[in-house]
Amino acid sequence: MPVARALRLPITAVVAALALSGCMSTSGPVAVGPQGVDSVTYGPAYTSAPVADAGGGGAISALRSAFASASPGYGYAAPDAAPVVYAAAPGGPAGYDNSYHLGPGDKLRVVVYGQEGLTNSYAIDAAGSITMPLIGSVPARGRTPAGLAGEISARLRNGFIRDPSVAVEIESYRPFFILGEVQAPGQYPYVPNMTVESAVAIAGGFSPRAKRDQVTLTHTDASGSGRFVVPLGTPMSPGDTVFVGERWF
To answer: How far is the C-alpha of 158 from the C-alpha of 230, rounded, in Å?
Structure first.
């Protein structure tokens, strides 16, 4: 008994010392969430906010609304301004033709059913008119194809044809222009649903010194002419002018 009591005291002292030093401390189990160890170590992953797509208002109306809230001038937005809104491309060539406003340089196919002498291709001249047999000069600038067909019908009905049936189709659009840092600047035929990026491709692509993230687009419509700094995905209209700037470094 004296020997066991003598051994018990050193063992008790060693156990107390280990407890105080923390060697015998135990930790509870660590729960790892569904995002994995990286999320526990570095925090939750960054999730970007969804981007709203502007659509339904046409290319130029979306551009005007997008840049109206930017700083004054030609659409140069401040660094902390809202992101640029991409205008939705037109739904297709047929619907686009119906809402398209004619202008000088457009070439039209006018069909007057049963009247071979009146059915022909007509180009809109610099004054914004076409010239047809019997009725002479007909203003076309600013009209839709359907509106022009109605005007031609009304003039033919006035003493020439009792009940004319007229259809107007766009045979070719007026050209667009591209200037600045592209391989082959100049004038090119417009095709439906073009974007700034496809215009740059038609002009041979960027030059080595081109600024490639945005361009200046000049557009003219019934409300006037405007210049906008736009990204490459922006839809274009016939007669627009694209200017590709030079980068500084």
So the answer is: 48
pLDDT above 70: percentage of residues in the chain: 61
- Other beta carbons within 10 angstroms of residue 185's beta carbon come to 17
pTM of the shown model? 0.59
Q: Where do we find the tokens 């406003």?
A: 101
Eight-class DSSP state of 126: T
Amino acid at 63: L
Largest CA distance in the chain: 141
188 contacts 202 by C-beta, under 8 angstroms = yes
Q: Tens digit of pLDDT for each residue in 48-64?
A: 333 333 333 444 555 55
How far is residue 234's CA from residue 128's CA, in Å, rounded to a whole number?
Answer: 27
Asked if residue 81 lies in contact with residue 66, where contact means CB atoms within 8 angstroms, the answer is no
Report which of 165, 193, 187, 175 is spatially closest to residue 97, judged by C-alpha positions.
193
Which helix or strand (DSSP H or E) is residue 65 part of?
helix 59-68
Residues in the chain: 249
Residue 96, number of CB atoms within 10 A of its CB: 17
How far apart CA 207 and CA 195 sit, in angstroms, is 18
Residue 51 in 3-state DSSP? Answer: coil
- Cβ-proximal residues to 123 (8 Å cutoff; 6+ apart), any chain: 105, 106, 107, 108, 130
Kind of pairing, strands 241-244 and 215-221? antiparallel
Q: If you count DSSP H runs as helices and E runs as strands, how many of each does the chain have, helices first?
A: 6, 10
| Cβ(185)–Cβ(246) below 8 Å | no
Q: Which residue has the tokens 């067909």?
A: 149
